[in-house]
Design goal:
There is one protein chain. This protein is of the alpha/beta class and 316 residues long. The chain is built from 10 helices and 12 strands. Strands 4-3-5-12-6 form a 5-stranded mixed sheet. A 3-stranded antiparallel sheet has the order 10-7-11. A two-stranded antiparallel ribbon has the order 1-2.
Length: 316
Amino acid sequence: MDVHTRQLQYFIAVAEELSFTRAAQRLHVSQQGLSTQIKQLEHTMDVVLFARTTRLVELTAAGAVFLQDLRDTLSSLDAAVDRARSVHRGEQDRLVLGAMEGAALTLTEPILDAFRKRHPGVTVELRHFTYEDPSAGLKTGSVDVAFTRRPFLDDGVRFERLFTEPLIALLPTGHRLADREVVHAWELLDEALLGAMTTDPVWNAFWEMADYREGRPAPVVSRSNSLLEELHKVATGVGVVLTVACARWIPFPGVRMVPVADLPPNEVAVGWRAAQESPLVRSFVEVALTVRDAHPELVAQLQEPDFADCTVPPHL
């Protein structure tokens, strides 16, 4: 199929702006030229991507699906170009590390220090990811290795567990359960829930307690892209959140953090794509596991936290 990447970028701009005028201004092209390129793309694909009226531009159902897949495809293409350029230049001195919020918490700094000592000539480029990509760049191949929180869709990804972390509920201070020492999963099932801004079904099923709902959908009232966004929403009474114990390091006005007694812990792991495994990636994984084993006291504090202490800052 003769589709040009320029047309795909044009499609994304119109899909995000939902306006040919604003998209043309953003791309610094004429509105007529942009419209012509979109029509050519639709003709080539034999698919209507936009529903147009004189006053409104909307994605069709086919256009919405295409947008979702296309972002991942273009990200993978960019990553492939970057890797090819690096090989062409003979670059062996960079490791791209993806990380979700908090990374590997208090193990992050000693892992990076140990890796830099082993490879003093290698630059570690740290890229942070929001809930939108729970794989922290592994899905698209835009990173070499990543600190992740499992589970998520992980086709082609290998893992080594670093530690597990218990779950807590974030509740408004006036909530009926806010003064409890612990809560149970069944007590949260009918609560207005704040979900994550991701389409990953495995990630959503874990954080929305799908295994406990007997097939009923979770009552998700809003979706967020970060822990800070969730805290703001909880404080204003939008809903409740299931999250990890390290949230206790961010005391927030109007929010009570209560451990959940009967849910499995969340796993923090170092992950990498099998197809992109390299000596440098293998060395990073080895260092991460060595540091973990050398700091049992840090691991114990993460796996069995003291919820009375909400003042210790994590190493991010």
